[in-house]
Amino acid sequence: NTAYKIHEAEYLLRQSDTHTLVMIDGFRDVSYVDIIKELCPELSEADPQKPLRCKRLPFLRHVITVSSRQNGCLSWADALAFSERVPVEEVWRRAAKVHPDDVCNMQYTSGTTGFPKGVMLTHRNIVNNGKCIGDRMDLSTADRMMIQVPMFHCFGMVLAMTAAMTHGTTLSPLPYFSSKASLACVKQERITCFHGVPTMFIAMLEHPDFCQEDFAFMRTGIMAGSPCPEPVMRDVLDKMNMKEITIVFGQTEASPGCTMSNASDAIDVRVSTVGHPLPEIECRIVDPETYEELPDGSNGEFVARGYNIMKGYYKMPEATAAAIDKDGWLHTGDLACRNPDGNFRITGRLKDMIIRGGENIYPKEIEEFIYTHPKVKDVQVIGVPDPGYGEEIMACVILKAGVHMDEEEVRAFVRASMAKHKVPRYVRFVDSFPMNAAGKILKYKMREDAAKSLI
Length: 455
Hints:
CATH topology of the largest domain: Rossmann fold
Number of strands: 24
CATH architecture of the largest domain: 3-Layer(aba) Sandwich
Structural class: alpha/beta
Oligomer: single chain
Largest sheet: 7 strands, mixed
Shape: globular
CATH superfamily of the largest domain: ANL, N-terminal domain
Helix content: 25-40%
Mean pLDDT: 93
Distance between the termini: 33 Å
Number of helices: 14
CATH class of the largest domain: Alpha Beta
């Protein structure tokens, strides 16, 4: 994630056992050079031609910098020069050993317990899911796709890039989302399709330049990541000329698509449902406790099985077993029901995940970080309704006796070490948290009370 700062970067590099890190100098307001220097001060005196030895990152052996030369790091040119030492026969030998079920990517996602998990996705997972997504969009060599969603998420990597590459579609990637830049790209490149979360479409529709742009070539795209309000979908169809826009539902562990609407579906189907299963993927609604399949119209947990299900969480066998049952069904933690016509509707979440503008935010990670502040006795992080982003973050903080702390101090503390989208918009100082008889904190009660206070 390009927004990661030192706290997240260290965890990811350690948990993934990263051997070689290829990096640019930085992105927007984050300096990756400063981060790696702090994590690995040994670089200052290291020989880039020899394996690195770093105390905080014990598996890291090489750092390759693309943008500049840094002490102890190989430059991109150095790395390319090393490739000349490898016999072509060795390259072909290794290529022949690659199997479709080999892990080719680890996407880090967040659950309701523990830290972010490394989702092991295979060639079979990613290529097939991207191909099926592109098929349902009817992508071809005549299409020109703008990518404004992050490619460090499956939304950009699979639903956009892989879908396009498996259909010969031209790609126009943007470094980050900007409604002004996106509108300009649509006009300049004669874009026929692009993806986004609802907040992206809203920002583009409301931008002053919108009325000056030309959507004559526009045809399709995907809206996903958060529920789409019907008025927004109607504006996208009518004002952006995206008559064939579709909806996709899934999660990273499903690489990511499970269900998808058809471009020809009626607007109410594309707004109120997430479509029907993609080819070769089974989807069911089950009782969350008994795992028994429920009839159409019943609310239960959405589970899926097929080629798209991850190989597992890296070095987390217990978490893998909790997510994928003995029969191969992925338990998503999402509440849904199936309509008689085979389309699925998402009705809620079993998990406490916060989805802010399409970004999955893991409360426990933020809680554990805020808890390290010397003034904080306890903290709970919840999601509260927001008209723009779907949800915003609220931190409910219990202070230690005799100390004072204001809201901005909490935000500044998080902002200094974590990504921007994880900084709480709201901070409430409380004396206690609501609990049940067993002492379990009732987050649903906290969300209800917070939502009322914000009205």
